[in-house]
Amino acid sequence: MSEQPIIIRRRKRAGRGHHGGAWKIAFADFMTALMALFLVLWVLSNAGNGDKEAIAEYFSTPLLVALSHGDKNSASTSAIPGGGTDASRPESELARKAKRPTQLSSEERRHLQSLKQRLENAVDRDPKLSELKQQIAIELSPEGLRVQLLDTDKRPMFELGSARVAPYMSQLLRTFAPVLNELRNQIQISGHTDSHPYPGGETTYSNWDLSADRAKASRQELVAGGLDPGKLLRVSGMSDRIRFPGAGPFDAVNRRIEIIVLDSQVAQRILAQDEFGESPP
């Protein structure tokens, strides 16, 4: 027999190619982005403080507001939505709001803290009023000394759905009146309700009317107790718009009267109609 030849086939290995040019496109994109970054940094380094603040304000504006060219009710008419009244000026709205004092001065804090103690002492001295201690919240706030008189289901400060003051509420307000006279600070009173609606809806007597009437009734009780009427700066009804912290919409604690002994700078800003801007000189 003839032997068949053994054939060995060896595959040739091809040389490694350059894998195409995709990396060049990626590198070009990277260099373009890098050049744009350095260009932006160069422009910012030569911009004035006003321009920088306007740019920062622009980028802090929510997208929806920017697309609609600013909130028509509250935003300014700046060329840059959300910016100041003039983008070329360093005083943007954000910068002006930042200058608003967020805490009381040490002297004002001392006076108001002393007033807080005297109000608490006036309640403690009267056995009838001391039963209301759980319904009285007195605290310092950035606006001044906040005194809140709170309702409960068992012991409301006013008759249900009415601005007629309960006897113990009347006694409490008339006890506070001479103590509030001890400081020169001006006072604002606001009435608040829960979210239970009136049968007639908003077109007739509503929570707006009730909260305003209760604030006015509280003012009358304070004045009857000896409060100087000239100290009153603002009396308002807030309906159910501001709930008591942590309360549900229908909780009794939302039905309250809020008396604020105003910090002198806050009172000046209210009088100057510039509550959210700089303090008047």
What is the CATH class name of the largest domain?
Alpha Beta
The backbone outline, from C-alpha atoms, is elongated
Q: Helicity, in percent?
A: 25-40%
**And the CATH topology of the largest domain?**
60s Ribosomal Protein L30, Chain: A
Residue stretches low in confidence (pLDDT < 50, at least 5 long) are: 71-101
Fourth-level CATH superfamily of the largest domain: OmpA-like domain
Average of pLDDT: 81
Which structural category do the helix and sheet elements fall into? Answer: alpha+beta
Query: Which CATH-level-2 architecture of the largest domain?
Result: 2-Layer Sandwich
Number of strands: 5
Rg is 34 Å
Return the domain count: 2
Taken in chain order, the helices and strands follow as: HHHHHHEEHEHEEH
- Tell me the distance between the termini: 123 Å
Count up the helices.
Answer: 9
Main sheet specs: 5 strands, mixed
Percentage of residues in DSSP E strands: 5-15%
User: Strand order across the biggest sheet?
Assistant: 1-2-5-3-4
Tell me what the structure shows.
With 281 residues, this protein is an alpha+beta fold. The chain has 2 domains: 22-98, no CATH class; 106-271, 60s Ribosomal Protein L30, Chain: A (2-Layer Sandwich), CATH 3.30.1330. Helix content is 39%, strand content 11%. It has 9 helices and 5 strands. The protein has a 5-stranded mixed sheet. Helix 5 crosses helix 7 and helix 7 crosses helix 8 (207-224). The longest helix has 24 residues, at 22-45. Residues 71-101 have low confidence and may be disordered.
